[in-house]
Amino acid sequence: MIGNIDRTIPESRRQLTMVPSSLSTEEEEEEPRAVRISEEQQVVGKSVLLGLGYYCRNKHITICNAPPYSPCPVLVSLYAAMGLHSYNLLQGKSFKFSRVLEYSKTYGSPAASTYRMALDAMDPCLSSVRVFETSVTEKSYGKLSLRCNFAIPLGETRKIYNIIDEIRRSREASMEYNLTGCMPEMPPLDPFQDTNRFYLLNKSEVEENEWIRMYLDLAFAATHRGTSKAPDLSKLEIVEVAVSIDTSDEEGPGPGPGLCRPTNAVFYIRHMDRSTARVEKNDVDRIAIVRRIYNPRTGCFSLIGQILSSQTIPKPIMDDNPSLTVATIL
């Protein structure tokens, strides 16, 4: 416990923060401890969120990546990257996530939280860095069920949506806002073979759209919360990716052009999970199913999904049985 603060210390010197422990993939995560920002840390540890007028009652703001502070937790970095990704999709930009500067979180029920984050992002066109602010809400703890409430560059005005009226007026908007009944399932036909309904990305498309890897990392990290160790994402290897995009409101042929626009879509990311537990169970071939939802009337961008064994991929329809119209699911 921290003792009484010396009243002779200037107000800027009496700010408290939380210092997270190292979150390497091998070390256990310890409880963060509250410390006073020293005079040497006043520049690198200056609070962006407090500077924006943000106040979180009875919560500390965690400052990351500033000596002697430890790196930001993996999950928080992924949440910040998700926020920046939503901004890029909505604004047609290509900012690259760099690092989380600081964050705070509030606790929901039973353990889901809302994270408020400030982050650095690189503008590849100008080779300059901009600071962004974003907020991501976990709708369910231990699942990929996330809603990005907003993401804006520092200094820009946040657009305010009349969300309450919208979700009261529209049952669909209410379900999307709360991510109720939105969990994607395995389709009746193999998404990697059914070219009529699904678009199979080639290798260059997967590499160019780095956020596809972020979807996989988020699905893995969000669902592996019952351990004191940080998730080891290095053992995940993407094999193939298929996507089903809702093009009802889009112009232009085919689903491919909709990848980098805020289209509602479901991604099927087949990957190899070579973690020790999977190797021992002979269950390394996995598939992450991630639904992307954007509602322009509420301004909310959401990701919801799950990871299944590749054994749940439907078997091909047998040619010698024409009466079989639906593939058998293992």
Automatic annotation (TrEMBL):
Pfam families membership: protein_MS5 (PF04776)
Annotated InterPro entries: MS5 (IPR006462)
Superkingdom classification of source: Eukaryota
Chain residue ranges for the region called Disordered: 16-35
Name of the featured protein: Uncharacterized protein
Organism: Microthlaspi erraticum
